[in-house]
Amino acid sequence: MEDKELQELFAAKRTVEANRRRQEELRRLLEASATPAAAPKSRRLWPLWLGAAAAAVLLLLLATPILFRQSETAPIMVAHNETPSPTPQEETIVPKEEIPAEVPQRKATKKTAKTIETIKTIETIEPEYYAEEQAPAIEPTLNTEHLTLNTEHSTQNTEHLTLNTEHLTLNTEHLTLNTERPTVHRRTSTNMVCSNCDISNVPSPYTAFQNFLAATFGTEPRTPITLTNIEF
Amino acid sequence: MKQHKNSMTQNELLNTLIGLQPVMQLTAEKLLPTAADAEDTVQEVVIEIWQKRDQLQHVLNLEGYAIQTVKNRCISFLRKHHDIATGNLEQALANLSDDALADECARIEEQASQLDRMMERLPEVQRQAVEMKYIKNMSHSEMQRQLSMSSANVYTTLSRAITNLKTMISHGR
């Protein structure tokens, strides 16, 4: 009975300890996620303000050339207005044939005549005149200023140049043991004779001993002792 | 029941949610197959409530809301993992009233504090040995290293501690 109760107490203690650990983990998680929500709205909106300021600067930069162009064209308009008034003779230049019949003929006023005269003047200018005024033709030359050889990335790539030894296996197809002529020297009764190389001048041990005795004692080798030649 | 008032500050809400964690964990453990799944579910629910804290001003009973959210999340988990038996789930949900959960949580807390009181009366070495063995689930070799004792001494110390605890329980009746 005490065992069961004790086990229950241990289980409860383990549960409480585990819950304490989980609570600490949760607290850490919630406190970490609480920081951005607690920030004031002005701080959270700073990217919008920054973006708006950047957009305004960009617009200003884009609009600046247009504004300057307009200010440069204004004096030209004034210059057109300052064209000298035509002479009375020139006022009658407008031919009546050029005016279409459908259009009700209108008496050209002084201002209209001036405008027509200006247009006429512009139209009568030869195109070649402008061509001459322009800069002389430049012979096309190869601009090699920026044509430099970019060798930055043209290094030799030796990364994958490894020796492929995958198929370098030893070819043992024809490497067979040649046992056709065994080089075994066999001895005959009298001389050392090789059956393969036919060497017959090698003396047998007996012959060699006889030769040794002859060389040592200077006599012919004796005949072997037999019963027939024994002297009594 | 704790009431979530409109005037609750962020810090108070955080403490309330942390305080509700044991009840939520118990609810999830009764519905889900493993304690790890229950822990994950509770964590998700707490974070969700925390992120929606600006929209929860009208919720008066935060504990009920949290427990119900945990139940719903557990049912979704079981449906998702095809691990649901309708009859068993209905019975389990019927047993999971808020009051029953609160009572069980209180009982667990009381048992843990009772064990604390009993262990305070044990000698230092025996208390350490009991904590390592039965609460931290340490192995005997780890206990030997921590306590600088031989294996036989660890066994003897544990045996004496358990005997003392049993005596305390029997005297407490």
What is this structure, in a nutshell?
Chain A has 232 residues and is mainly α. Chain A contains 6 helices and 2 strands, in the order H-H-H-H-H-E-E-H. The longest helix of chain A has 37 residues, at 2-38.
Tell me about the largest β-sheet of chain A.
2 strands, antiparallel
**Uncertain ranges of chain B:** 1-6
Structural class by secondary-structure content of chain A: mainly alpha
Compute the number of structural domains of chain B.
2
Query: What is the number of helices of chain A?
Result: 6
* Sequence of secondary-structure elements of chain B: HHHHHHHH
Please state the overall shape of chain A, judged from the principal axes of the Cα atoms: flat
Mean pLDDT of chain A: 66
Q: Portion of residues in helices of chain B?
A: over 70%
Q: Strand percentage of chain A, roughly? A: under 5%
**How many DSSP-defined strands of chain B?**
0
Oligomer: heterodimer
> How far apart, in Å, are the first and last alpha carbons of chain B?
32 Å
Write the layout of secondary structure elements.
The complex is a heterodimer of chains A (232) and B (173).
Chain A: H1 2-38, H2 41-44, H3 46-81, H4 110-124, H5 127-133, E1 191-192, E2 202-203, H6 205-217
Antiparallel strand pairs in A: 1-2
Chain B: H1 10-31, H2 35-51, H3 62-80, H4 86-95, H5 98-120, H6 124-135, H7 140-147, H8 151-172
Helix pairs in contact in B: 1-2, 1-3, 2-3, 6-8
List descriptors:
heterodimer, A: mainly alpha, two-stranded antiparallel sheet, 6 helices, 2 strands, 48% helix, 2% strand, flat, B: 173 residues, mainly alpha, Arc Repressor Mutant, subunit A, 77% helix, elongated
